[in-house]
Every structure is written in structure tokens, then in C-alpha cells.
Specification:
Blueprint lengths: L19 H24 L1 H23 L30 H37 L1 H16 L2 H12 L3 H27 L3 H8 L4 H12 L1 H24 L11 H8 L9 H29 L1
Helix pairs in contact: 1-11, 2-3, 2-11, 3-4, 3-6, 3-9, 3-11, 5-6, 6-9, 7-8, 9-10, 9-11, 10-11
Amino acid sequence: MSVPGQPAPAGATEIGTASPAVVGARSDDSRVATKERLALLMRSKSFLAGAVVVGFFVLCAIFGELIVKDPLASDPINDLIAPSADSWLGTDKLGRDVFSRVIVGARDILIVAPLATILATVLGTALGLITGYFRGVVDDVLSRIIEAFLALPVIIMGLLVAVALGPSKTTLILTIGILFAPLISRTVRAAVLTERELEYVSAARLRNERTPYILFGEILPNVMGPIIVEFTVRLGYAIFTAAGLSFLGFGIPAPSPDWGLQVSEHYSLISGGFWWPVLFPSLAIAALVIGVNLIADGVASAFER
């Protein structure tokens, strides 16, 4: 500390006050790290391949109705026609064009899955910050609740929530968001446990900063890497879960061209040789999940270096 009336030594700062040079250096380091990660992503073959696949389905979701037939238009006379030049992927049991329904069906899944994953990430991050920072009784109580929640099978919990709220897009978003939040909270908690012991958190306490500021202003920016990785990983699971709940009849109601619903409506026809109304929506689900997982692999690799 400097004596009153005398100049402070070079580089010294008052207690509780950060040096502008240090703040500027930290900001520069953050920008450099961000640029390096973006460069790694642009060189990652898995990330680029996944981006192409997901980008294709995003374009289908946005512009699909402009380039294909009406996915809800039925033609009972031409039902269950095999793939041909007139109908590239054939027709379903109501005579609806399967190609149109697969293309437009990307919209529902690309609305539900990202929104559900965002909800799960927000809830899980908040839980992880609280349990990791406070420890003690708060951590013990919340952790036991989360562990009890995770002990139940995911699909059973999803069915219970879906039955209670009724089938709709909102129900799917809430169901998946609630199911995945505890999973994300465990990852965030593990990262926070490390960060809370570092000097910058102790310095924030010495400055008498409020707890919300320490959690969201100091710790949160430093655990964004694991959160981003967790988001991309859970997005793939969210797509599969949304399709699974729709297949079981607890997702988006008919006559939506939802992929899981299409499979549910026609899987019993496979034994009769009518495979196309099931195969192509299933391939779409698999392709989108694989694309998201490739992106997740690239993001994880970028943040590990």
C-alpha cells in the first residue's frame, strides 16, 4: 500500500481495484483465444461436414414449402405409390408426397430441439453455478434432488410430462428442457468447482461484489467453453428425444409432417412391403443427428486445445 501523500509504486493498484492494463490484457487474451478457436473450427473436417448437413436441413426448414408440394395435401387414389420419377420418395397411406413431408418436416424438429436445448442450458447453467459456488447445504440438497431425478429413465420422465401437459410443440420443448437441465448442471458444476478456488474469484469477494455478479459476471464467462460443448452435444440428443416422443404419440400432433410422427404412422406397413414412408423420415432423423454430433466433435476439439 502507498503512504498517504506519496505516489504509489509503479504498477500498484488500490485494493479492490483492477489495473486497466490487466483488464485490457485479459480482454485481448479472450479475443485471441476466440479467434484461435474459430480458426480451428474452420480447419476441422468434422465440423465443416456437420455444418453442411445441418445447413441443408436449415434451408429445407426455411424455404422447403416454396420448392415442394403441399405436405398436407392428400390423394387417396394414389396412396402408397413406390418412389418414381413422378414422386421421388413415393407417397404415404393418405397419398401425401413423402419427399415434401420430409423436406418440410425439418421445420418442426429444428424449432423444437434448439429451443428445448436452450431452455435446458439456461436452467442447467443456473443450477450448476449455484451448486458449484455455494457448496455446503445448498449443494447437498440440490445435488440429491438432481441425482434422484436422473435415476429415473429419461423416456419415462418424458412420457409423464407429455401426458400431463398434452401433445404440442410447447410440451416437447418443456419436456426436453426439463429432462436435460440436470445433465447440463453436472457439467457446469464441475467447471465451477475449479473456478471458485481461483484468485479472480477471491479478488471479487475482497471487493465485496454481490454474489449474482460473481456468478454471472466473473465465473460464467470462464466456464462458457464447457457450456457451449454441452449445448452442442445435448442438441443431438434433443433431436432424437423429440423424434422418439413423437413416434410414441406424445409429440407434435397430426397432420404435421414431423419425422417421428411419419415413422409412427407407417412402421406397421413395413411388413407389407411399404418401406418408403418409414425409411426416408428415419434417414432424415439419422442424418441430422449425425450432422449435429459432427459439429459437437469439432467444437469439443476446439475448446480442448
